[in-house]
Amino acid sequence: xxxxxxxxxxxxxxxxxxxxxxxxxxxxxxxxxxxxxxxxxxxxxxxxxxxxxxxxxxxxxxxxxxxxxxxxxxxxxxxxxxxxxxxxxxxxxxxxxxxxxxxxxxxxxxxxxxxxxxxxxxxxxxxxxxxxxxxxxxxxxxxxxxxxxxxxxxxxxxxxxxxxxxxxxxxxxxxxxxxxxxxxxxxxxxxxxxxxxxxxxxxxxxxxxxxxxxxxxxxxxxxxxxxxxxxxxxxxxxxxxxx
Length: 243
Ligand code: URA
Hints:
Elements lengths: L11 E3 H7 L5 H9 L3 E3 L2 E2 L6 E3 L5 E3 L2 E2 L8 E6 L27 E2 L8 E7 L2 H8 L7 E7 L5 H9 L1 E3 L2 E3 L3 E6 L2 E6 L6 H8 L4 E9 L2 E2 L8 E3 L2 H9 L2
Parallel strand pairs: 9-15
Antiparallel strand pairs: 1-4, 2-3, 2-5, 5-6, 7-9, 7-17, 8-9, 10-14, 10-15, 11-12, 13-14, 15-16
Bound molecules: uracil (URA).
The site of uracil has 8 residues, from α5.
């Protein structure tokens, strides 16, 4: 098996960036792979993500697999079913999102949804693309439909709009709107772990269902639960440009 890179092989790049560009994983995940001692440059384990590498001069292995050129990039949107984990590791027998893809060997999810969250999830082998989407500076809006045990009152919406402390940072949603009895929509930019659940908890709302329905300009629409489709170049632009 051979991993790959599409971009120019001439100049030196940081090891983590080069691996992300080759589609191994997102930049952050590549750093973790490097720290774990899974990467060799010219036969030597290197645990330093900043190590300069040059695709013409250096031979890079991940888990003893040579990383070389021309892997076709693939991009999917999935309607994630509940109960599936967003991880490449296999924690026991628990189902993971990548089980839903027949050839998942080099795929990874773009960011994560909680195990019981459903809805729009991007899956790719393109580390650059994943990085662009999840990097906070991209400011991409993620929209969720939230079903709650309680009826939504004005004071709930006010508390939600105030924000909450998530990961030691106060985050405020971009918008919160009541849709109908026991359902509201919320748009966030940060993409922090459990963000919507923490916001709802502060408003004393118990979440019954949490579904991501939009990332940037890409909407989940009628894609059935557990199914995925290929993203066109236009879909990808839509994620990165439309808000
Ligand atoms: N916010 C959450 O709390 N959970 C998710 O899965 C996504 C966003």
